[in-house]
Amino acid sequence: MTKIILLNIGWMKYYQGRLDSDPIVGGGSHVAKHRYGHEIFNFLPWEGRMYGF
User: Fold this and answer.
1) DSSP secondary structure code for residue 40 in this structure
2) DSSP class of 22
3) What are phi and psi of 43, to 5 degrees?
4) For the chain, what is the largest distance between any 2 Cα atoms, rounded to a whole number of angstroms?
């Protein structure tokens, strides 16, 4: 049987950090409780690199 992985990721337009103009939507109970998830940094450059959370 083929294995599948499902991810509950919050949605944003730009993923450039915590911005009032680009709030995170969805993403499960962590986002609902803390109003952020680490995926908000997915496309935010840091020291010449980009990381995926």
Assistant:
1) G
2) B
3) -120, 25
4) 43
What's the token pair of residue 6?
């499902």
Entry pTM: 0.68
CA distances from 4 to 7, 16, 25 (A): 10, 28, 24
Domain locations in the chain as residue ranges: 1-53
Whole-angstrom distance, CA of residue 53 vs CA of residue 43: 10
- Residues contacting 30, CB < 8 A, separation 6+: 37
pLDDT tens-digit map of 10-39: 999 998 888 999 999 998 899 999 988 989
